[in-house]
Design brief:
Length: 128
C-alpha cells in the first residue's frame, strides 16, 4: 500500500508540472503579443515612408496594423488569464508541499516512536 506521504510527493510533482505548463503558455502569449506589437510598429513605419505601395493601399496597411494591435491585445489578455492560473497553481503546489512535509514529519515521528518502544521492550525482556 502506498503511503500518504508518497501520494503527496507524487501530487507535488504533478502540481509543479501543471504550473510549468501554465508558465510556458503565459510566456508564449507574451511573446506573441510582443511580436504583434512589433509587426504593427513595422507596418506603421512602412506606411509612413514614401512608397508607391503604401500610397496605393493605405487602407490595407491600416487594416493590417489594426489586426496586429488586436492580436497583441488578445494575447495580452490570454497572458493575464494564464498569470492567474500560474498563481492558482503556485498556491496549490505550496499547500500540497506543506501537507507533504507534515506527513513526512508525522511518518518520521511514528518511526521514531516505534523504534523507542522496541528498544524499551527489548530492555524489559532482557532485564527479566
Amino acid at each position: 500500500m502506498v503511503s500518504r506521504t508518497e501520494r503527496l510527493r507524487k501530487l507535488v510533482e504533478v502540481q509543479e508540472q501543471l504550473k510549468a505548463v501554465h508558465e510556458a503558455r503565459r510566456a508564449g502569449y507574451l511573446t506573441a503579443a510582443v511580436a504583434a506589437r512589433d509587426e504593427a510598429a513595422d507596418l506603421a513605419r512602412r506606411a509612413d515612408q514614401p512608397s508607391e505601395i503604401a500610397a496605393a493601399f493605405p487602407d490595407l496597411y491600416n487594416r493590417r496594423i489594426e489586426a496586429a494591435l488586436a492580436r497583441g491585445a488578445v494575447n495580452d489578455g490570454l497572458a493575464a488569464t494564464e498569470a492567474g492560473l500560474v498563481a492558482a497553481a503556485t498556491l496549490r503546489t505550496n499547500r500540497v508541499e506543506k501537507a507533504h512535509r507534515e506527513s513526512a514529519a508525522a511518518d518520521e515521528r511514528q518511526r521514531s516512536d516505534k523504534e523507542r518502544l522496541e528498544m524499551i521492550s527489548a530492555r524489559l525482556t532482557t532485564g527479566k
